[in-house]
Automatic annotation (TrEMBL):
SUPFAM superfamilies: Nudix (SSF55811)
Native source organism of the sequence: Candidatus Pullichristensenella stercorigallinarum
PROSITE patterns: NUDIX (PS51462), NUDIX_BOX (PS00893)
GO molecular function annotations of the record: hydrolase activity
Keyword Hydrolase attributed: yes
Superkingdom classification of source: Bacteria
Location of the Nudix hydrolase domain: 23-152
Protein name: NUDIX domain-containing protein
Keywords linked to the UniProt accession: Hydrolase
PANTHER family from the UniProt entry: ISOPENTENYL-DIPHOSPHATE DELTA-ISOMERASE (PTHR10885)
Length: 173
């Protein structure tokens, strides 16, 4: 748990339990774009308690106690997609503050063969590449987690410009 200045409070919350008063948590996401400008998206499993069977950003989740934002996004990407990221020295492209915490978003460009991904079966049922137009249509139809349209447009707008950081990739991913 964190305070409003992102400082650890020492308090811990368990998944599914109410947060202590004033407690905030850290969420992380990575948006992976290919050279064609498409975003790698994942479909959440039907059995998930939050947003089952909806499409989402490339990978993401909550930081564990003691994890930094970078450590959390590296772990989530490896767990959900089988992609080992090394984001040492990389900061989030942007942070979205919401009522219960902070969401750090990392933007990365990399062409990935979907067949090479190792999906976490408990979390992810499917992955695909999607254009801006496709993601916005999915958002409107309810097939995508209901992020603000302006946020989704910003993520695509930031691709290849401010916020997009060159990240070295290991040869085996």
């Amino acid at each position: 748990m964190y305070d409003e200045n992102r400082q650890p409070t020492g308090a811990k919350a368990r998944r599914g339990e109410p947060f202590p008063p004033g407690g905030l948590h850290l969420v992380v996401h990575v948006c992976i774009f290919d050279r064609q400008g498409r975003m790698l998206i994942q479909r959440r499993q039907k059995g998930k308690s939050a947003w089952p069977d909806r499409w989402d950003l490339s990978a993401g989740g909550c930081a564990r106690a003691g994890e930094t934002s970078r450590q959390a996004v590296e772990r989530e990407t490896l767990e959900e997609l089988g992609i080992a990221l090394d984001l040492k020295g990389v900061r989030p492209a942007l942070t979205v503050n919401f009522s219960r915490g902070f969401d750090d978003l990392y933007l990365i460009e990399r062409d990935i063969d979907l067949a090479s991904l190792r999906l976490q079966p408990e979390e992810v049922s499917q992955v695909d590449w999607a254009s801006r137009e496709t993601v916005l249509e999915m958002l409107e139809s309810g097939a995508f987690i209901p992020y603000r349209r302006s946020l989704m447009e910003l993520l695509f707008d930031m691709r290849g410009q401010m916020g997009m950081l060159p990240v070295p990739w290991p040869e085996n991913t």
